[in-house]
Amino acid sequence: MYKTISVLGIALAVLSTQALGKKCHLETTVYHRQTSACGEESCIPNDDLEGTGELQVDGSSEWDGDGANYEDLSNGDGVDVNTDGIQFHIDPLGIPDEQDEPTCKVVIGDYTNLGTPDVKNDGDPGVFGTEFHCTHDWDW
């Protein structure tokens, strides 16, 4: 009888752990900003291209965009992430200057997670540009 209870207890513990899983929250961003630095004689444009991301697992930061860059996240090959036993591929979001909104896709094994897109246009004085942002949530 004790063996039955201990085996049953272990089975329930394993199943409850698998049922709860890990809550994953991923945010990715790619942007192009141009700043005009004007002096007395000329204006020199300065381009700022950035691509980054962050993965939080159960509220703790597990990936801080390491390996992500503008080229891969805008129109490149995307980014493969493997952290804390969680593996996925971020598809490119697109080029902010050439499309209206990002393509938000993360491939997790055989599953494709379509995230929530957001577009921000920078209108600060002397600065213009577009930022693509994607948010993804899933259980691991």
Tell me the major beta sheet: 5 strands, antiparallel
Percentage of helical residues? 10-25%
Overall mean pLDDT score? 84
**Assembly state of the chains shown:** single chain
Number of helices: 2
Which structural category fits the helices and strands?
alpha+beta
Q: Please mark out the parts with pLDDT under 50 across 5 or more consecutive residues, or reply none.
A: 7-19
Provide a short characterization of the protein structure:
The chain has two helices and nine strands. With about 140 residues, the protein is of the alpha+beta class. The strands form two sheets. Strands 3-2-1-9-8 form a five-stranded antiparallel sheet. A four-stranded antiparallel sheet has the order 4-5-6-7, with no helix packed on it.
Describe this protein's structure.
- The chain contains two helices and nine strands.
- The chain is an alpha+beta fold.
- It has a five-stranded antiparallel sheet with strand order 3-2-1-9-8. Strands 4-5-6-7 form a four-stranded antiparallel sheet, with no helix packed on it.
- The protein is elongated.
- The two termini are 35 Å apart.
Task: List strands and helices in order, with pairings.
Layout: H1 2-20, E1 23-38, E2 43-57, E3 60-63, H2 70-74, E4 79-83, E5 86-90, E6 105-108, E7 111-114, E8 116-122, E9 127-139
Throw out a few tags for this protein:
single chain; 140 residues; alpha+beta; four-stranded antiparallel beta sheet; elongated
